[in-house]
Specification:
Blueprint: E1 7-10, E2 20-24, E3 29-31, H1 54-68, E4 76-78, E5 85-86, H2 88-113, H3 119-125, H4 130-133, H5 145-157, H6 172-182, H7 186-198, H8 202-215, H9 221-225, H10 240-255, H11 266-275
Helix pairs in contact: 1-2, 2-5, 3-5, 6-8, 7-8
Length: 280
């Protein structure tokens, strides 16, 4: 290409349905596109997309490592996001660790699924082994082991978790009305939620108060007022993507939903709707 030698590698069905990585022999440089990065990527994006194949993704990274490893003077690995990795040994190490991370997520999810665990149970149990957990480029800063394991489960088994009670549940509003009644009404629910908030049980507070959001939307501001502050103490581990979703809830409550015009791209419309708790 204009005198520059480029060796392309076709890696479809990894981070994207169509994905090309390439090697520049003149500079001993490999572009990993979005197949390789300095974080744990998403096996399923929270904005909404098809589930990615974690096993194929892992294999592709292994192919890159097999290609790079014999090139003793490989200089740099650069990607579509983040900073480059310099030097043969550092490049090969990063590739093998990224490969192992996606393989671990895939294999351990399938192992636990095959002994009967549900997606939520698998997500609670999975922890990266020490050989991987301490590496900065594998941290769950973008994707997380929790929702990636759920994505692997979804890829193979779909939404049904094997529990007949979840096969045909009531829709959110119908269910929420009954939950709030069982809990003694809105006031009693919020009083109990405040007790658990004081204990630091933020995930449970979010789950319980969510029923009130659907059952009595006119009280929608109250759940936010009883939620922990600052954001770092919300019922999630601080992650940019997760944090953005929770922040959008607050903005929706106090400012209203974003005004989407006909010029707003369809994928952004889907993203906004998914980011607002009341529409989930």
């Amino acid at each position: 290409m204009d005198g520059v030698e480029i060796e392309f590698f076709n890696m479809p069905g990894s981070e994207a349905p169509s994905e090309l990585t390439f090697y520049l022999p003149q500079w001993k440089a490999f572009c990993g596109a979005e197949v390789v990065s300095h974080v744990m990527h998403n096996v399923l994006t929270l904005r909404g997309a098809k589930v990615r194949d974690a096993l194929v993704w892992s294999d592709y990274i292994g192919h890159i490592a097999d290609f790079i490893e014999p090139i003793a003077d490989a200089a740099v690995l650069f990607n579509s996001h983040h900073w480059p990795t310099w030097g043969h040994d550092a490049i090969v190490t990063q590739l093998h660790q990224q490969q192992d991370m996606y393989k671990f997520t895939h294999d351990q999810t399938m192992r636990l699924a095959n002994i009967g665990l549900t997606p939520k149970e698998i997500a609670e149990r999975l922890v990266l082994p020490k050989s991987l957990a301490g590496n900065f480029h594998l941290r769950g800063y973008y994707g997380t082991l929790s929702h990636n394991s759920k994505a692997v489960y979804q890829y193979y088994f779909g939404w049904y978790n094997g529990n007949p009670a979840t096969l045909n549940p009531l829709p959110p509003v119908e269910s929420a009305l009954r939950y709030v009644e069982f809990m003694g009404g809105a006031e009693a629910l919020l009083e109990k939620a405040a007790v658990y908030q004081a204990k630091g049980d933020y995930r449970w507070v979010a789950e319980v108060v969510n029923h009130l959001v659907f059952a009595e939307p006119e009280l929608i501001a109250l759940p936010v007022l009883c939620w922990p502050k600052p954001i770092g103490r919300w019922p999630i581990k601080p992650r940019p993507v997760h944090g953005g979703i929770f922040i959008s809830l607050v903005l929706t409550i106090f400012r209203g939903a974003p005004r989407l015009s006909v010029m707003t791209p369809p994928h952004q419309r889907r993203f906004y709707s998914r980011c607002h708790w009341i529409n989930l």
